[in-house]
Automatic annotation (TrEMBL):
Cellular location(s): Cytoplasm
Superkingdom of the source species: Archaea
Compositional bias of kind Low complexity: 150-164
Catalytic activity of the protein: [protein]-L-glutamate 5-O-methyl ester + H2O = L-glutamyl-[protein] + methanol + H(+); L-glutaminyl-[protein] + H2O = L-glutamyl-[protein] + NH4(+)
GO CC annotations, alphabetized: cytoplasm
Organism name: Haloarcula terrestris
Active-site residue numbers: 184, 211, 308
Family, per entry: Belongs to the CheB family.
Enzyme class (EC, first level): hydrolase
Official protein name in the record: Protein-glutamate methylesterase/protein-glutamine glutaminase
InterPro entries: CheB-like, CheB_C, CheY-like_superfamily, Sig_transdc_resp-reg_Me-estase, Sig_transdc_resp-reg_receiver
Amino acid sequence: MADGVRAVVADDSHFMRSVISDILSDGGIDVVAQARDGEEAVSAVIEHKPDVVTMDVEMPVMNGIEATERIMAECPTPVLMLSAHTDENADVTFEALDKGAVDFFTKPGGEVSMEMSRLKDQLVEIVVSVAAVDVGTTKSGGANSGDGTGSTAAGGSATDRTGAGAAAGQTTYVANPTLVIGSSTGGPKMVEQVMEGLPIEADLRVLIIQHMPEGFTGRFAERINTRSEYEVREATDGARIGGGEGLVAAGDRHMVVKNYRNGRLRTKLTQDEPVNSVRPAVDVTMRSAAETIDDPLVGLILTGMGEDGADGIRRIKQAGGETIAQDEATSAVYGMPKRAVETGCVDTVLPIDDIADGIIDAITTEVT
C-alpha cells in the first residue's frame, strides 16, 4: 500500500514535477521534496531520507546517472528512473540501472498531462514497489543466502559437464534444451547475471520476457548479447532460433512460440490484449512453449511485481518441464516469484548467484 511511502521527485521541468507530484499525492504517497536537478535531488535525499526517488534522466548541473550514483554512495535509497522514449535515453537509463537504480518508467509523449493521467495507476504501483526494495544490503546469493534448496554451488564447473566422451560420474547436457525467463521490477540486471553464467556448451534456446516498454527491449537484448556467450537479439515476428541463441520479447508485443522442429523454434509477435495487465506477458510465452516444445524445457521466474508467470510455470511443470524461482532474499520485489512458488509447481528456489548453476543442473544427466 502507498500509505506511509515518502518520495522525492526530481525533474528539471516544473510542469513535470507538478504532474508527477500530484499523481503520487493522489495515490497516497507523501512527496516530501521536489528537486530541479541531480544536485538538489542528492541534497533532498540526505535531508529527508525518503523511501523512494523518482529521477529524471537528463537534468542540468548533475544528471540522473550521477545523482543516482551519489545517492547510492552517500544515502542508499531506491531510485526509479523516469525516462523519455528515445534511443539515447534508453542507453542512459540502462547506465543508471548499472549505477544502482531499481527500475524505470517511461515518460509519456504527446499531451503529457493526459497521458500521465492515464498511466497514473501504473506509476503509483511501481513507485510503491520500488520503495519496498532494500538497497542497503547486497542483493546477491552465495553460500549463505536463501534457503539453500537445490543449491548447486558445489556442483562443478561447466567444463565438468561436457557432452562428448564423458566418463562415468560426470554429467552431460540433455539435447535441445529451451529456457524461458520471466521478470519485471528489478529484473534487467538479474537477467543479465543469469545469462552471463550460462555456458554456450549447454546449447540452450533462450526466450526472455522482461516487462519493458517498446524502444528499450532492443537495447536490453544488445546488452545481453554483449555480456553473455549467447547470440541474443530482440524478437521479430517469425524469428527463429536454435541452440546458443536467444530472443528478448519486444516491448508492447506478446511473444508466442509458434512452432518447434528439429531443435529450432519460431516465434510470433502479437498485440493481443494485455495478460495480467502487461504486454509482453510471461504467461503467454510460457504457455505456448509448454504446448509446442517437446524437448527439455526450463521455466524461470525472477524478481518482479504482480502474478505474471505463475500460470506459465504451472503449464511448464504440467508439460514435464523443470521450474525455478528466485528467492525472496535476493529479489528486488518478491511478487512474481512468490506467486509462482504458491502454485506448488516450482521445483527449486534459489538465490540469484546460484540460478545459472540451477539451470545447468536441470539440463544435465548423470553418465553411468
